[in-house]
């Protein structure tokens, strides 16, 4: 049984190695950028819709507040004229409007929270997209014209880490100067 498990792991490792060779990192990165751009467009659309809903809720709530003021004036008139039946009908309207106003305020608060979350997510996604674009730029700059990637080769690291003689001389003079001043 142990032999079968080991052979299975060998085949699985070889299969994964073949998949790694088939995948093109540059194409995967480009696809990730496209998907992130699509997500940004969708998030921006959700934010616009939510902001529009916020405005509609605020407008409706202000209309209800003005209606409540009118009802209060009408109630004053009914009580002065001793029209109790009419006053009861207005009180019913006032209670219904107050409930509706409360519901709209709750929706407005929930919508505001959602809008804030969406804006934070949009900012995070923009930062992530910018990072992906920078990686793609680096990848494009480092990719040789032949089509194979230098990321597969460690030689580019050696070139990046190599220190020139002039850099050594400048660093030596700085160190010597720093020690002579102390």
CATH topology description of the largest domain: Helix Hairpins
Rounded Rg:
34 Å
Oligomer: single chain
The CATH class of the largest domain, by name, is Mainly Alpha
Give a quick precis of the structure.
The chain is mainly α and 182 residues long. The protein contains 5 helices and no strands.
Features:
single chain; 182 residues; mainly alpha; Helix Hairpins; 2 domains; 5 helices; 88% helix; 0% strand; elongated
What does the model show?
The termini are far apart. 1% of the residues are buried. The protein has five helices and no strands. Helix content is 88%, strand content 0%. The radius of gyration is 34 Å and the shape is elongated. It has helices spanning 2-22, 25-81, 84-142, 155-161, 165-181. By secondary structure, the protein is mainly α. The chain has two domains: 25-142, Orthogonal Bundle (Helix Hairpins), CATH 1.10.287; 153-182, no CATH class.
Write the layout of secondary structure elements.
Layout: H1 2-22, H2 25-81, H3 84-142, H4 155-161, H5 165-181
């Amino acid at each position: 049984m142990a032999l079968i498990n080991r052979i299975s792991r060998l085949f699985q490792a070889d299969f994964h190695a073949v998949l790694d060779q088939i995948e093109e990192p540059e194409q995967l990165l480009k696809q990730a950028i496209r998907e992130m751009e699509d997500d940004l467009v969708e998030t921006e659309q959700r934010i616009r819709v939510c902001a529009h809903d916020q405005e509609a809720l605020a407008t409706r709530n202000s209309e209800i507040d003005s209606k409540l003021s009118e009802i209060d004036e009408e109630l004053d008139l009914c009580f002065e004229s001793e029209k109790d039946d009419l006053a009861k009908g207005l009180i019913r309207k006032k209670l219904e409007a107050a409930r509706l106003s409360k519901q709209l305020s709750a929706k407005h608060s929930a919508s505001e929270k959602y809008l804030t979350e969406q804006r934070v997510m949009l900012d995070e996604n923009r930062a992530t997209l910018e990072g992906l674009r920078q990686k793609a730029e680096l990848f494009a700059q480092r990719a040789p014209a032949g089509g194979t990637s230098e990321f597969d080769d460690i030689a580019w690291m050696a070139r990046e880490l190599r220190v020139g003689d002039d850099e050594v001389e400048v660093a030596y003079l700085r160190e010597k100067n720093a020690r002579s001043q102390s």
